[in-house]
Amino acid sequence: MKISDILEEKLILTKLPGTSKEQIINALVDLVSQSPKVLDKEKVRTAIFEREKIMSTGVGNGFAIPHGKTDAVSDIVASFAITAEPIPYQSLDEKPVRLVFLLVGKENLVGPHIKLLSRISRLMNKEEFRSKLLDIQTSKDVLAAFKQEEAHYSDM
């Protein structure tokens, strides 16, 4: 499964306003709930924040990947945002975040969920790709960038 298979243009935001990690996560949960795969938005929100309590999903290099598993979705679903300003996120490197990828998996789809987390991390570890995303202005172009980047990997 490719990232671009689960990410939809309507579930991508550029210039997302906000000043805190909580505001950004809430905005992404609200965004992802537009998908028919989301059966209960508040249960999704709870799953994401419960996971965040365990350890911050700010992985470093200006990127965060809030995620969780719940039966409040019918299948894996995601949303992505580029924030308008750097957001304090309690990241591992203690730097603010601008790129945020929300991933919600179904409780019984652990394998695909972990594979997608790994693929997202691999793409986002590339400085060139992160820089490219920060320059993009539209959701359509963000999705195209993910598709183009994924084409470089034979196992995706």
Structure description:
This protein has 156 residues and is α/β, with parallel strands linked by helices. It has one domain: Mannitol-specific EII, Chain A. 42% of the residues lie in helices and 21% in strands. It has six helices and six strands. It has helices at 3-6, 21-32, 41-54, 110-124, 127-135, 139-150; strands at residues 12-16, 58-60, 63-64, 67-69, 77-87, 97-105. Strands 1, 2, 3, 4, 5 and 6 form a six-stranded mixed β-sheet that branches. Helix 2 (21-32) runs antiparallel to helix 3 (41-54). It is globular, with a radius of gyration of 14 Å.
List keywords for this structure.
Mannitol-specific EII, Chain A; 156 residues; 6 helices
Number of strands: 6
CATH superfamily: Mannitol-specific EII, Chain A
| Largest sheet data | 6 strands, mixed
What is the CATH T-level topology? Mannitol-specific EII, Chain A
Give the class from helix and strand content and strand pairing.
alpha/beta
Strand portion: 15-25%
Number of domains: 1
C-alpha termini separation: 7 Å
Query: What's the shape?
Result: globular
Indicate the low-confidence ranges by residue numbers. none
Distinct helical segment count? 6
Output the CATH class name.
Alpha Beta
Q: How large, in whole angstroms, is the Cα Rg?
A: 14 Å
List the helices and strands and how they pair.
Layout: H1 3-6, E1 12-16, H2 21-32, H3 41-54, E2 58-60, E3 63-64, E4 67-69, E5 77-87, E6 97-105, H4 110-124, H5 127-135, H6 139-150
Parallel strand pairs: 1-5, 3-6, 4-6
Antiparallel strand pairs: 2-3, 5-6
Helix pairs in contact: 2-3
